[in-house]
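$ run holo --ligand "zinc ion" --emit C-alpha cells
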Amino acid sequence: MGFPITRMRRLRGNENLRRLVRENQLSVDNLVYPLFATNGQGVKNPVGSMPGVFQMSVDNIVAEAKEVQNLGIPAILLFGIPDYKDEVGSAAYDDNEAVQRAVRAVKEACPGILVITDVCLCEYTSHGHCGIIKDGNVLNDPTLELLAKTALSHAQAGADLVAPSDMMDGRVGAIRQALDATGFSGVPVMAYSAKYASGYYGPFREVAESTPQFGDRRGYQMDPANGNEALRETLLDIEEGADIVMVKPALAYMDIIRRVKDAFGLPVAAYNVSGEYSMVKAAAQNGWIDEQRIVLETLTGMKRAGADIIITYHAKDIAKWQG
Ligand code: PBG
Ligand code: ZN
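-- output --
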C-alpha cells in the first residue's frame, strides 16, 4: 500500500513515538573501555593524538576502574607498556609487569568490574611485531606457545576474559588448551577474529609504543579489501573455542560486522579503534562536528550492523551523556 494511505512520517511526529518504534538502543551495558597500564607510581601521561586517553600506572588504573564501574560500564580492556622489550616479548608473560599487576590490583579494589586483557606481543617485542621474528619473517607456530603463556599469566593474575589480537593462525586453540589444562576452563576467549591491517591503528601505536620497527603487519593481519575471508577467519576461531568474536576496526567494516553476526549468531564485538576516535576528537575540537551526536550516531550504527559489544574510548563519555 502506497501513498497517500501510507505515510512514513506518521511514526516520526514526536520523540515518544520515535522511542516507541526505535529498533536499536546503544546501551552502556555493551561497552568496554580500554586502558593502558604502565609501571611506576602516579603516572598519567597524556597522548597527543588521543585526547582523554593516558598511559597510567597501576594506582591510577585502579582509580579509573572505579570510575568506570560507577558509570555502569561493565568491563575494561587492559593493554600494557612494559619496562623492557626483547626479541621474544618476555615482558608479556612476566607476572610482575604492568598488566598482571593492574589485573590483580583492579580485581582486589573493585571485584565487580570485568577485566579483559589484550593478549599480544607487539608492545613487548624490541621489533614491535606480534610474533617471533626470524630472518625478517614473523614465525607463526613458535609464537603460539608465547601467546598461550601470556594468556595464562593474565588468567593467573585474575583476568576474567582474554582477548588475543595477534592474528597468528591457531592461537585461539593454543590459548584455550593452555587455559583448560591449568584450571581456567571458565575463562572465555574474546578473539580478534576479523582484524584488518589498518591505518586506523596509528594513534594506538603511539599510546602503546608498539609501532613495528620494520615492515608492517600485512603479513598477518587481514587485507582491507576482503570480506569472505573474514568469515573463514571467524569460523576457524569459533572451531578453536572462541566465545566472543571481534571485528576490528569497526567504522570501515560495518558490512563485516553484519555478515559475521548473520553467519554465526555468536556474540560479536566491534572495536571502535583509536583512529576512529582521534578523527572525531579532532573535528570536534575544531568545532566542525557535534561530538556527542556523531559518537552516538556512529556507535548506534555499529549496533544496528550487528555488534553486541562495542570496545570504545568514548565509553565514559557515553555513560555520562546517557546518565
Ligand atoms: C595489538 C593491538 C592493536 C590494537 C589492539 N591490539 C594494534 C595493532 O595491531 O597494531 C589497535 C587498537 C586501536 O587502534 O585502538 N595487536
Ligand atoms: Zn600485536
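-- notes --
The chain has a mean pLDDT of 98.
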